L-2,4-diaminobutyrate decarboxylase (Engelhardtia mirabilis), 479 residues
Amino acid sequence: MSDIDAYDPEAFRAAGHRLIDGLADHLVRAGGRDCPAISNVAPERMLEELPARFPAGPGGDVVMRLLEVVRRSTAVHHPGYVGHQVSTPLPQAALAELTSALINNGMAIYEMGQMQTVMERHVVAWMCGVLGFGDGSGGILTHGGSLGNLTALLAARQARAGHDIWTEGTQQPLALLASDQAHYCIDRAARIMGWGAGGSIAVPTDGRFRMGIDELERSHRRAVDEGRRVVAVVASCCSTATGSFDPVDAIADFCAEHDLWLHVDGAHGASFALSERTRDRLRGVERADSVVWDLHKMMALPSLNTAVLFRDGRRSYEAFAQQASYLFDDTDPGSEWFNVGRRTMECTKRALGVTAYCMLEAYGTAHFARHVERLMELTHRLEALVVAAADFELAVEPEANILCFRHVPPGFDQDLDGLQARIRRRVLDNGRYYLVQTRLRGRLWLRTSLMNPNTTEDDLEGLLDEIRATAANRGHRLD
């Protein structure tokens, strides 16, 4: 194959047919449980098995290698995948991703992403409407919740610091308040912004792992007494460990009283606003100054695809208030909504709106509401199985599609934390299920995120049976 042949459309067509056939076969096998949920290979072994040298000339078969990647990856379409908050993506969304990758138009400026920019604008406007934001709201799509939260908090800093941070720099210690269950990227964002270890102040949570308003008041007063200027409160909707929703409406009252920016980290849980049956968990979200919402979680899009949404869309231009004359005219940035590079960390930004727009158009918005509802129904089925079982313990009643529980065999009086860790390790070795673990107030729990609507109650019963068998067959040994 010559360098020119690498761009041969016929070769691409042939390879595409082979790859699509292989991926479709994977969907059939994963959905039918004919492959493991996880290919549990030790990292050192994988390092040894995968060639580390690249040839000087052509010779490798890219389709063969890609299908090997599929075969040796965690199968998120498998009904036994109940692990991390990674969606079971819509297969047709992969076609949109393929198209964007081939045409390769970055989106800093309209000239390099014309239809893509308008698609993104329509998707963002729809999401703002779902949250209850009114006229004048807006935002952008970016690559993941961590970058999305940082972007929103940069805007909060500029809006509430009391001076122009971009021009003058930080003039006094700044801080934000977030629950002790907030995602670690919140603390990371505070440190990136130069606020140090005390920049993200953890507010204690209640028995259901939700931010307590009384504790919020005390934490705020303590921060002020210590000489910090608090600029924002971050509400977790929902938390990663337990799926708990902070009380947004009450937090909004607190923020209004103290003139603080309210940011909602809805990376996982903002999708609950799609359904009338679940949107009460987000009561008050329309009062937030900013919201982060991952489309690659409960909206079943491929990773990464995150919306950063602002109740006042003008605020989205303040996070990155810089000039770049080779890209942008020296005009009011708001008049150039179509040059999204003014509002993102990225310059070469992938066309995330294409995938979102095409899936919303193809399936309809009601599909995504039903998806959220199905996952919650599935979670409540697992909850009922755990509560009804004498040998399992529930950590907290679930508010999202996340459930934490642990196995407590009758008469077992040894190290329960060690037992959970060993159970999980052996379950992964078996490969039929993939679940994770989390530590809540010093105790280790097994944790599931039910992301696949094809998972059934039989699969959930099978998971509990496998956990029981794993413990019984090893005699509770902790090796």
In short: The CA atoms of residues 139 and 188 lie 22 Å apart.
